[in-house]
Specification:
The complex is a heterodimer of chains A (112) and B (166). Chain A is built from three helices and no strands. By secondary structure, chain A is mostly helical. Chain A is elongated, with a radius of gyration of 19 Å. Chain A starts with a helix and ends in a 13-residue tail after the last helix. Chain B is 73% helix and 0% strand. Chain B has two domains: 89 residues, Four Helix Bundle (Hemerythrin (Met), subunit A), CATH 1.20.120; 38 residues. In chain B, helix 1 packs antiparallel against helix 2 and helix 2 runs antiparallel to helix 3. Classes of the chains: A mainly alpha (112), B mainly alpha (166). Chains A and B meet through helix 1, helix 2 and helix 3 of A and helix 1, helix 2, helix 3, helix 4 and helix 5 of B.
Chain lengths: 112, 166
């Protein structure tokens, strides 16, 4: 597949996540949109890794390791996302316990 | 149109539609379920790119663990509705317009880039297989791998400390 298709698909997914972060007021949905943006980036990294692999393949090199770094970065992004979710959801639960809502408009004063 | 292209377009349409439903659903539970469908579509893309390890990890970690965590939290606090202060109409409009401008600028900048002639290898290639990735992970990337375990430990401690009732 042409790499452009993957590029624009990832851009569209990233933009949808960004619009969600900008428009929604529910902290949990904002958090889910961040996950969506991370996944768009992951998809693009995998596509680029296969692009480099194909370039190395066509240049006649031994199949080798070209592009394997991209997929490992995706793996580490997933690791960081999982850690982020655990801490972030703990913060959201804490916020719900304090203000009895997950609406981020209640956080605009940074007190209580 | 080959089978690869058909699969690509079907998976792309599925991912984009369910991603749109994530941000438009009123009920957070529906948002979570649509997000799971998005993750499955992205995993389908990984399989199409022959990145089988990442496809399985994506389903296990995201659709299996993280989304269940989201569902638990939503059901724990019974936050079905968007509170009394829902999204204001002009905020929705401004967010959509700025997102559209972002997309427009990036598409315009990238559509004639030198990448245009490049292709990604689909349905073939060895690097997505678990043997190759595991070999790399435990030789060249062993230090980041160990550091990520420390990250997990600190995230766990942080979650317990933050969530503790004081």
């Amino acid at each position: 597949m042409p790499i452009n298709y993957y590029l624009f698909l990832s851009l569209a997914l990233f933009t949808i996540g960004m619009v969600g972060v900008l428009t929604r007021r529910n902290a949990i949905i904002i958090f889910m949109c961040i996950e969506l943006m991370l996944n768009a980036v992951n998809l693009l990294l995998v596509a680029f890794s296969k692009m480099h692999y194909q370039a190395a393949f066509e240049a006649g090199q031994v199949a080798g390791q070209a592009g394997v770094d991209g997929q490992l970065f995706v793996f580490f992004i997933m690791v960081v996302a999982a850690a982020e979710v655990s801490v972030g959801l703990a913060i959201i639960v804490m916020m719900y316990r304090n203000v009895h809502s997950v609406d981020i408009n209640f956080l605009n004063r940074l007190k209580h | 149109m080959s089978i690869v292209q058909i699969l690509f377009w079907v998976l792309s349409a599925m991912a984009l539609f369910s991603a749109l439903m994530v941000i438009t659903s009123k009920n957070p539970v529906y948002s979570v379920l649509w997000l799971i469908i998005t993750f499955f579509a992205i995993s389908g893309h990984y399989i199409l790119l022959n990145a089988q390890f990442l496809a399985v990890v994506n389903i296990i970690v995201y659709a299996g663990a993280i989304m269940v965590l989201f569902l638990f939290v939503i059901m724990l606090m019974n936050a079905r509705q968007e509170g009394p202060t829902g999204s204001k109409r002009w905020i929705t409009l401004a967010g959509t317009v700025s997102g559209g401008i972002f997309l427009l600028v990036l598409v315009a900048a990238l559509k004639d880039s030198e990448l245009k002639a490049r292709t990604a290898m689909v349905m073939d290639g060895q690097i997505g297989l678990i043997k190759v990735l595991g070999n790399e992970l435990f030789t060249r990337y062993v230090v980041p791998f160990e550091i990520s375990s420390i990250l997990f430990l600190s995230a766990m401690v942080g979650a317990v400390v933050i969530g503790k009732k004081d």
